[in-house]
């Protein structure tokens, strides 16, 4: 058993877990209106939990390629009501997909259990804020910024570069008082990477696991899948499942996805098979 604590909840990370994506950006719930959108977010969270998600990952900043930055106040206004409402209604682990120190601190006060930062705590004050919450963190690799990251990304040595970056961020997090056992790593699929970069990183998932960290993978519906299959975003589920299945076999344990139920079923079956020994 490898148990990790997420606030007041614990999770056995010898089992695979699904993290359901809950975007609280204005474009995610198109019929507008603050109240309507909170209701819609709650319904979506409830569905994902019924389907077996272990985490709800709440994000108020679009980090899609080319996306503009959101102001701190705007992000607080989007994220905090959702964190509060979900923490009150559901018994789950709330992950906040944020790089903003105030969002980390306020979300933690409202009951969040994980800080998921695509900028690996690089923003001013983020390391200190994350440490202050006492919560675990997911450190993700990104090359460039969401605005420019897909403009011909290149690496000297992809795996070594990503590994070195993540280990540097781990050292900085540890120096601030975040325990090594509280750190998840994520190669950052789609964040400043070509198709070949993404595929290679997924293929080398075990390298990151061998560093002694649990690995989180976020590949759901991403361009990588679209490029391989030549399909639009609403037809990327099977491809996403292929990518996630592949990394489960290479040791990844948390899967950040839009489609919870298919992944929960897939991972249950895969886990049973992987754990079965000549009965
Ligand atoms: C990721 C994320 C990811 C982690 C996003 C999208 C872009 N957090 N937040 N890993 N991606 N940890 O879902 O298309 O890959 S936002």
Which keywords apply here?
binds ligand 7PJ, TIM Barrel, two-stranded antiparallel sheet, eight-stranded parallel barrel, alpha/beta, 43% helix, 279 residues
> For the report, how would you describe the main beta sheet?
8 strands, parallel, barrel
Helix content: 40-55%
The radius of gyration over CA amounts to 18 Å
- Give me the side-by-side strand order of the main sheet: 3-4-5-6-7-8-9-10
> Which sequence of SSEs, written as H and E, runs from N to C?
EEEHEHEHEHEHEHHEHHEH
Query: What is the number of helical segments per DSSP (H or I, 4+ residues)?
Result: 10
By secondary-structure content and strand pairing, the structural class works out as alpha/beta
Can you put this structure into words, describing what you see?
With 279 residues, the protein is of the alpha/beta class. It has one domain: Alpha-Beta Barrel (TIM Barrel), CATH 3.20.20. 43% of the residues lie in helices and 16% in strands. It is built from ten helices and ten strands. The strands form two sheets. Strands 3-4-5-6-7-8-9-10 form an eight-stranded parallel β-barrel, surrounded by five helices. It binds ligand 7PJ. The site of ligand 7PJ has 14 residues, from strand 7. Ligand 7PJ binds next to strand 7. Belongs to the DHPS family. InterPro entries: DHP_synth-like (IPR045031), DHP_synth_dom (IPR006390), Dihydropteroate_synth-like_sf (IPR011005), Pterin-binding_dom (IPR000489).
């Amino acid at each position: 058993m490898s148990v990790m604590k997420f606030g007041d909840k614990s999770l056995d990370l010898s089992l695979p877990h699904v993290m359901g994506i809950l975007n609280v950006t204005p474009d995610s719930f198109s019929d507008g209106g603050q109240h309507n959108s909170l209701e819609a977010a709650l319904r979506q969270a409830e569905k994902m939990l019924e389907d077996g998600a272990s985490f709800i990952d709440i994000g108020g900043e679009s980090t899609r390629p080319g996306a503009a930055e959101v102001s701190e106040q705007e992000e607080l206004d989007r994220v905090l009501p959702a964190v509060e409402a979900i923490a009150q209604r559901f018994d789950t682990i709330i992950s906040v997909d944020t790089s903003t120190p105030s969002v980390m601190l306020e979300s933690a006060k409202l009951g969040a259990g994980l800080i998921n930062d695509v900028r690996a705590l690089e923003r001013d004050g983020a390391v200190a804020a994350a440490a202050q919450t006492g919560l675990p963190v997911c450190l993700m690799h990104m090359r460039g910024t969401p605005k420019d990251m897909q403009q011909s990304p290149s690496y000297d040595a992809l795996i070594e570069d990503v590994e070195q970056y993540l280990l540097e961020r781990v050292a900085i997090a540890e120096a601030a008082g975040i325990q090594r056992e509280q750190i998840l790593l994520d190669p950052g699929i789609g964040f400043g990477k070509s198709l070949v970069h993404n595929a290679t990183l997924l293929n080398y998932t075990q390298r990151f696991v061998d560093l002694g960290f649990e690995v989180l993978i976020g590949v759901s519906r991403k361009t990588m899948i679209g490029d391989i299959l030549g399909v639009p975003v609403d037809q990327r589920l099977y491809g996403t499942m292929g990518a996630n299945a592949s990394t489960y076999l290479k040791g990844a344990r948390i899967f950040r996805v839009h489609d919870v139920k298919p992944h929960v079923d897939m991972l249950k079956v895969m886990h049973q098979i992987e754990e079965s020994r000549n009965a």
